[in-house]
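To: structure subgroup
Subject: Chain for Friday's discussion

All,

I'm putting the inputs and outputs inline so they're searchable in the archive.
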Amino acid sequence: MTAVTVCAAAAVVLTGCGGAKPKPEPAGGSKGPAVSGSASAAPAHAGGATHEVTLEVGGTGRTAVMYSGIGSGFEPQTLPWSKSGTAELTAAEQKVGYLVNVVPGTITGPDGTLQQAPCVIKVDGKKVAESDGVTSVKGCSYTIE
């Protein structure tokens, strides 16, 4: 019984540490996906700022993709894959940073070996992180400040 209690407590703690809390929707409806490539950060409510974020995973076929920062998920995707959205940073997040990441699974490389799918993160239309899946296998990660 003690092991079950410890596992349940760990799940609660890890769930709370998994990333930023969802932001409330603006008055008048859902914010929906953002158009990537917008100009610069615009002020948001409560002293925050917004940034347009695009996550991309290259390659062909299907692989699991884990991402966070503009929502979060971990599920099989058909490649190439991309997701765009708005990251709304509070004043505190602007000081300490707001993590956005994407970690793709493996694909079959040109030489027939398994390798991580390549990835890119763009913030406000500018490429800020990139991995070719060969020389770096940590996926793509960027802290918006």
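Points worth raising on Friday:
The radius of gyration is 17 Å.
The chain has a mean pLDDT of 76.

D.
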